[in-house]
Amino acid sequence: MSEIQAWIDNEVKSNEVVLFMKGTPTFPQCGFSGQVVQILDYLDVPYKGINVLENDDLRQGIKDYSNWPTIPQLYVKGEFVGGCDIIREMFQSQELQEILGKPATA
Amino acid sequence: MPMEASEIETLIRQSLPDAKVIIRDLAGDGDHFAAEVVSESFRGKSRVQQHQLVYEALKGNMGGELHALALQTSVPD
């Protein structure tokens, strides 16, 4: 496992909820990343935001790690949950609330 | 080099011959599309796995030429 893969693996395993995104939770720099940030904030979920724009190895490394070609990528309890489309779908179907241990929302 | 909706459809069909594919060009710039793909090969797979099948069909264009593809996958009823 390369250095960047080991670093990613550690971040994914040592944080309950991790969002690899473009920009930061306070300043998302991409509409898709911003949508996931909005959903997590709406559900009041504490999470770690990691800005992939700061490091090209990370930006490519995360895509290899999950075999997923785009950013953002959300991980919960060490598992890759999905990108923006899937997170939005799971939010609407309440599945996201369930895996995050949050009550169903209206 | 932006992509055409028909190119995306053809690539998906090559890997998922039974797929019903609807592509919408969201921004008219060849870079932002929405795709609905219905295929038997998604049955029993998680959403992530279903989307990965579509991304593999797009042979590396995803994230490169194709910046945004809003995906909706499902199995035939």
TrEMBL record, chain A:
Name of protein: Glutaredoxin
GO molecular function: 2 iron, 2 sulfur cluster binding; disulfide oxidoreductase activity; metal ion binding
Superkingdom per UniProt: Bacteria
Glutaredoxin domain location: 17-81
Keyword annotations: 2Fe-2S, Iron, Iron-sulfur, Metal-binding, Redox-active center
Matching NCBIfam families: Grx4 family monothiol glutaredoxin
Stored PROSITE patterns: GLUTAREDOXIN_2 (PS51354)
Keyword Cell inner membrane: no
Cross-referenced InterPro entries: Glutaredoxin, GRX_PICOT-like, Monothiol_GRX, Monothiol_GRX-rel, Thioredoxin-like_sf
One Pfam family recorded for the sequence: Glutaredoxin
Residue numbers binding [2Fe-2S] cluster: 30
Gene3D superfamilies in the record: Glutaredoxin
UniProtKB/TrEMBL annotation, chain B:
Pfam families: BolA
Annotated source species: Cohaesibacter marisflavi
Name of the protein described by the UniProt record: Transcriptional regulator, BolA protein family
InterPro entries per record: BolA, BolA-like_sf, BolA/IbaG_stress_morph_reg
Lineage: Bacteria, Pseudomonadati, Pseudomonadota, Alphaproteobacteria, Hyphomicrobiales
SUPFAM superfamilies: BolA-like
Family: Belongs to the BolA/IbaG family.
